[in-house]
């Protein structure tokens, strides 16, 4: 009844339908049956199969917002123009969609002031370890609310955030490393990553075993980051104007800005950014892939130039701690770029020049990572040996090496026609568990190993 091209389009449509948390398997079956029936009727009426598919999707869009979102997801499809015609870009949830965001953001803003009632100032070390908890718990609560999570899922969230609080305030508080950037500092860096993946558990409504839902969370992470940065820029302008205008009339607003506006605004912005991703998908979901395609070639050029410069100079990497941290930050940014590029790509599309650029980026990052690994390992031979920072750096770079190496193999296989793109997607979504495991190890294993001795 339909040709192979349309069958492929129906398969993509079905895959998108199954990503919707509101729809169960029987719902997806029913929707597909309805789509196929409409296509069959249109073919009998004289349309070609591909034309029938376009019209059927258009009609589905009239029945449900589902088809609109499907069209936005595949922005290169012809039927996007058909389905999105007349779309106003308004929030799908109406004003009721604001309620969970307002409540959770308000709770975050209030909660961040509670420690001050007990004499904890914002320059106290307490905030180094705990600030992520104040921002991410309300965001997880927002998703638990909007996803209507079951008690078991909520219990898992409570347990994991409790573990995070214990790690920050029991394990790390009394631990002190031998370097300036102590075990306490390592907890402050790794705990937000561990907790962000806990937020991911809430975002996917507890369906963490679903690779597709984990990929949705990766997309959400990139879009939420963009929104958070934009909110931060706007907040910076607001703060500057507040200072300037009140100082002009002789009113000191410094206490209000530093103790209320900035901390309350930062934690509330985390929730607002998450809500904006949900409510205004049509804005950023088109921006993020553009940014990815813009910066992937630029980062590829920079890393290749770095490898060439290293080869010519033969000077090696300056093995100071700050330099190694800088290289690790670059590798993490590159990995995030790769991850989001994969999440934004249509898995059914054929290999192209952008995929070859990505392979070059992965291989360049792999070379840089090997150089960093050699440099970090070389530092362990001095009088200080295996310090917490060095073990953390070694562990991180080994994890990055494994990810980059296998990503290069899978991406090369895809370009050579030997491996589907889905394998690379699955590899990246499965690897989130490795990042989470390492972050929790640093939070809970490092303090007793290095700090209590």
UniProtKB/TrEMBL annotation:
Report the superkingdom from the record.
Answer: Bacteria
State the InterPro entries in the record: Perm_prefix_1
What keywords were assigned to this record?
A: Membrane, Transmembrane, Transmembrane helix
Q: Where are the transmembrane segments?
A: 95-114, 126-145, 152-173, 185-204, 225-248, 260-278, 290-312, 324-345, 357-378, 398-417, 429-450
Q: What NCBIfam families does the record point to?
A: perm_prefix_1
User: Can you say what this protein is called?
Assistant: DUF4153 domain-containing protein
Gene source species: Allocatelliglobosispora scoriae
């Amino acid at each position: 009844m339909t040709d192979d091209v349309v069958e492929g389009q129906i398969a993509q449509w079905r895959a998108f339908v199954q990503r919707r948390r509101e729809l169960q398997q029987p719902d997806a079956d029913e929707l597909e049956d309805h789509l196929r029936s409409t296509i069959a009727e249109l073919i009998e009426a004289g349309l070609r199969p591909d034309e029938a598919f376009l019209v059927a999707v258009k009609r589905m869009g009239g029945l449900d917002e589902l088809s609109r979102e499907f069209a936005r997801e595949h922005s290169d499809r012809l039927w996007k123009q058909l389905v999105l015609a007349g779309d106003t870009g308004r929030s799908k949830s109406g004003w009721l969609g604001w309620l969970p965001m307002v409540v959770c953001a308000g709770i975050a803003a209030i909660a961040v002031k509670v420690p001050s009632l007990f004499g904890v100032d914002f320059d106290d070390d307490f905030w180094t370890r705990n600030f992520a908890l104040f921002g991410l718990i309300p965001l997880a609560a927002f998703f638990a609310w909007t996803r209507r999570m079951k008690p078991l899922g909520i219990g898992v969230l409570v347990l994991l955030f409790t573990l995070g609080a214990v790690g920050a305030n029991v394990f790390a508080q009394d631990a002190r490393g031998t370097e300036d950037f102590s075990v306490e500092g390592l907890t402050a860096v790794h705990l937000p990553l561990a907790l962000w993946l806990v937020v991911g558990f809430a975002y996917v409504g507890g369906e963490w075993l679903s690779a597709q839902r984990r990929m949705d969370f990766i997309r959400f992470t990139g879009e939420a980051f963009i929104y958070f940065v934009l909110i931060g820029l706007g907040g910076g302008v607001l703060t500057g104007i507040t200072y300037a205008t009140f100082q002009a009339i002789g009113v000191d607003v410094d206490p209000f800005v530093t103790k209320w506006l900035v901390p309350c605004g930062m934690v509330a912005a985390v929730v607002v950014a998450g809500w904006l991703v949900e409510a205004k998908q049509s804005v950023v979901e088109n921006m993020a892939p553009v940014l990815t395609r813009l910066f992937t070639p630029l980062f590829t050029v920079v890393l290749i130039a770095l490898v060439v410069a290293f080869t010519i100079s033969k000077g090696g990497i300056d093995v100071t701690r700050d330099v190694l941290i800088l290289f690790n930050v670059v590798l993490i940014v590159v990995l995030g770029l790769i991850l989001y590029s994969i999440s934004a790509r249509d898995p059914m599309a054929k290999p192209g020049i952008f995929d070859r650029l990505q392979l070059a980026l992965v291989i360049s990052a792999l070379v840089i990572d090997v150089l960093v690994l050699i440099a970090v390992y070389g530092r362990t031979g001095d009088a200080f040996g295996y310090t917490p920072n060095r073990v953390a750096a070694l562990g991180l770079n080994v994890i990055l090496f494994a990810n980059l190496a296998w990503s290069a193999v899978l991406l090369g296989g895809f370009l050579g026609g030997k491996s589907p793109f889905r394998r690379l997607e699955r590899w990246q979504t499965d690897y989130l568990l490795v990042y989470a495991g390492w972050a929790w190890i640093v939070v809970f294993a490092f303090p007793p190993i290095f700090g209590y001795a």
